[in-house]
Inverse folding.
């Protein structure tokens, strides 16, 4: 597993992926690899905990757009929580918040995703 | 007194943009910029560096100049590559990317322009200079 992925767990049929460090191309691909594997296994709901990802680039975030697209095919959803303000702003500018949801906490995300 | 300037020379290697962002953090702290402004500078700088690394088509270096002015921080990202025509860069929209064959990337210029107070592009066959300015909020 990539060192970018700190932890993966499942709660109430939601896959929660905790990341660590710079969300660049490799980081995005690491998230995508887990999501695609889980989608094949029938999972359709994903949360990304980005508490220790303070820096992103648009290439890494673009891979999240690919995941959103893939999830649309299976009527799935993805959300994020514990985002740094600049990460949240970047998601807004790139339009991710039109197709996925930013939550404040894991508790809120587990209820509302 | 000359304007204080910090200059970096970055080789085109993976994740070298993070060296520039660490320098930007120290300068933002020195200038007492807000966390929001520092984050915006970091993100814009990452995108400008990645554009230079990916699109300059050169094996050379990318140069970053941080110019500390009284009421603003000016950041120049300079490459000596092949240049680009900004008029040919389309403004990306996620609606045009989701569910379509279009590539999902291509957000760098949009992010830079949204996050900085002013941005200028100078580009020709000898290279590109992106000049980004963040005004200090009083």
């Amino acid at each position: 597993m990539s060192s970018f992925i700190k932890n993966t767990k499942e709660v109430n049929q939601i896959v929660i992926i905790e990341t660590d460090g710079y969300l660049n191309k490799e980081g995005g691909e690491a998230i995508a690899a887990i999501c695609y594997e889980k989608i094949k296994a029938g999972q359709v709901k994903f949360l990304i905990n980005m508490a220790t990802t303070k820096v992103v680039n648009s290439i890494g975030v673009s891979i999240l757009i690919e995941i959103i697209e893939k999830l649309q095919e299976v009527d799935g959803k993805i959300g994020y929580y514990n985002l740094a303000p600049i990460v949240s702003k970047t998601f807004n500018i790139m339009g991710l918040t039109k197709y996925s949801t930013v939550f404040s906490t894991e508790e809120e995300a587990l209820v509302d995703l | 007194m000359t304007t204080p300037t910090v200059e970096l020379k970055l080789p085109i290697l993976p994740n070298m943009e993070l060296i520039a962002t660490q320098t930007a953090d120290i300068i933002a702290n020195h200038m007492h910029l807000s966390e929001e402004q520092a984050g915006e500078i970091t993100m814009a700088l990452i995108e400008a560096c990645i554009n230079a690394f990916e699109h300059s088509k050169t094996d050379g270096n990318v140069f970053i100049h941080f110019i500390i002015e009284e009421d603003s921080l000016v950041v120049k990202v300079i490459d000596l590559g092949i240049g680009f025509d900004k008029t040919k860069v389309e403004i990306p929209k996620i609606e045009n990317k989701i569910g379509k064959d279009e590539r999902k990337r291509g957000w760098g210029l949009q992010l830079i322009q949204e996050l900085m107070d002013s941005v200028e592009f100078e580009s020709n066959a000898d290279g590109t200079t992106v000049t980004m300015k963040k005004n200090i909020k009083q």
